[in-house]
Write a structure and sequence with these properties.
Layout: H1 2-13, H2 29-32, E1 36-39, E2 45-52, E3 63-67, E4 80-81, E5 87-94, E6 98-105, E7 109-111, E8 118-121, E9 127-132
Antiparallel strand pairs: 1-2, 2-5, 3-6, 4-5, 6-7, 6-9, 8-9
Length: 133
């Protein structure tokens, strides 16, 4: 009986262990930004991988990337839809330039890149995304 009382008194004085915070989901570097740049050894070309996350293109069937690098052609650079719902495309761009661009979702909705190097106002009252290579 004495041991039971001592045990109860001991447990009453012990502090409950602090709850550990739930760790945030670890984001891989390739997933954390939509723009990935790989410079070719010659320095003249940069392979830029554009990624539009599924959150920006929910239920999209088709996304094209439109910008200075394709004379704002609405159909030239169709992006590939990944299994996770993101859209991606890699383009070889000449270096030492800035390129304005936007994503066109299902031919009727424009979206900027959430991780663009910067944004520049356009003539239509919105902003263009900019990638600097």
């Amino acid at each position: 009986m004495k041991k039971a009382i001592e045990k109860k008194a001991y447990s009453a004085t012990m502090k409950a262990p602090a709850k550990r915070p739930t760790p945030a989901k670890t984001i891989k570097p390739s997933e954390s930004k939509s723009l990935k740049k790989q410079y070719v050894k010659s320095g003249a070309i940069c392979k830029v991988t554009f990624r539009l996350p599924k959150e920006a293109a929910a239920d999209a069937k088709m996304v094209t990337i439109v910008g200075d690098f394709n004379n704002w052609d609405l159909t030239e650079n169709r992006m590939k839809k990944l299994k996770n719902g993101d859209f991606t495309l890699t383009l070889d761009l000449p270096c030492s330039r800035e390129y304005r661009f936007r994503y066109l979702i299902d031919t009727n909705k424009w979206e900027n890149d959430w991780f663009a190097d910067k944004y520049v106002p356009n003539d239509f009252g919105a902003d263009d995304s900019v990638v600097v290579v």
